[in-house]
Amino acid sequence: RGRPACTAAACVGCKRVFGSAEQAQAHEEECWRVLSCPGCSCHFGDARSFQAHLKERGGQACCAAQCSICGLVFGSIEECAEHTASHRGRHRRSSPRRRSSSAASTNTAATVPALPAPPRRSRMESA
Hints:
Blueprint: E1 9-10, E2 17-18, H1 21-28, E3 35-36, E4 43-44, H2 47-55, E5 65-66, E6 73-74, H3 77-92, H4 101-106, H5 123-126
Antiparallel strand pairs: 1-2, 3-4, 5-6
């Protein structure tokens, strides 16, 4: 009865438990297992969830867009369109175009990793 409510929260990537949601959120910003959407503040623990988020963002204030050629995810449709145009430019030129350092620093692209293959079972586990 007199016990305070539990405020513990876990990282969506590594599942490490923290004393509060704020601590877990701060950790998620640095955790290498967490995928952050560049179009909103959502975090995901696996590529499948991130892909689902990108495909159906119904009602959310997410403006992320994914390149249909290479799969990079950008924080805006405009940024993605500019990137996609660079793919077309590469096909016409014989040498790749270099990006300026200022353009690289403002890029909010995220890479969506491929889904991992299911773990193989050894003969010992099968028996």
